[in-house]
Amino acid sequence: MKKAFLLLCALLLALGSALPLAGYRLARAVLSRRAAIPPAPASSTSAASEAAPAAFEGDADVFLIEDLSTGEVQQVPKRDYLIGAAAAEMPLTWPDEALKAQIVAAHSYALYCRDHASASNGSWLSADPARRQGYLTDAVLHSYWGTDYEANYARLSALADAVLGDVLCYGGAAAGTSYFAISNGRTEASENVWGSALPYLVSVDSSTDLAADNYEVTLTLSAPQVQQLLSSGLGIAADSAAPERWFGETTLTASGYAASLPVCGQTVSGTALRRALGLRSACFNIRYQDGSFRITTKGYGHGVGLSQWGAKALAEQGWTKPSSPTISRGRSSADDTKTGWSALPATLCLFLLGKLSPEASSTSPSSSRSQPQLHSRLPQPPPLRSPERADPASCRRGPAPSSRSRCCWRCRKR
Fold this sequence. Notes:
The protein is an alpha+beta fold. The chain is built from eleven helices and 15 strands.
């Protein structure tokens, strides 16, 4: 009995010594294992929040716009300008995504003009709200929309708010996102219109424009009318005895617009003749018959950048806008799919960028430092299109623009 008691005491003593050691080793093993496991990733919400790029640092809250009717430079809040610009450029019957594309293009282009402006009055752009060209003030919108003002303004302001922070950038700076109404089926390269080759303003397919209203229009001018226009617009004295010989064979650009042609023995660029004769586009065909010239044009506008009717077509096909785009080098799957892309990609991928493609959201300049700087390549920004709006009929509402103000909304670079 005594032996059993002593054996039990020895056993308890051994267990009392072993248990703390076992507990220590067990705890050490568990702690070591936890230290080896990497920390769990943050929630998808927080990760997305941290990955979201910052707003474009070069944005502005107020835009400086010269009113051509008064000559005054107006300080226009950004939101008001974007709403007014979209209202001036596109019918509100068009799809939301087309209007968003227009808003972002107008926003980016205004900042581009600011970065290159040198007007003595400090303005970035000029507009003529009284003639409903370029940008419409709230007072003009009240007059223009009448009883539909509240509904129209609510819709357009909601669309503007959805993309208010979106800026199209190239090389860390706002891009020159020019736009026009209708192409001839392809957009034009910037160097063929303004002399400066921009890597994101190249010729690309825009064949949906062939179905646009008033895609092809024929203008008839008498020989004396053409003679007067050639004299006043180009300083060319045409021989009235042989009008059938005034125009020679046209040389075309790769996009099918007139590059140049002989005019009364002088070589004239297609864009210069377009301006002199007041043609809708530089894609034209001239025929002389029975004392008159019949000039058929295809498209409407300079053809560089965003085709507004093309944006409408892609929006109707289901393109949808991404969170917010930036211009960058390379290609992505967005070039070949509608998913997450829009009339805005219509702006970027198809009609604006060609081989360049947007891959991220609106960004600070630091995110694109490796790309070539736009400023060093563009001593002068392209002038924005004249009032060749997506809704040509709207040009007839209100006073007709004078010949002097045909290009009334232009970048203020002298």
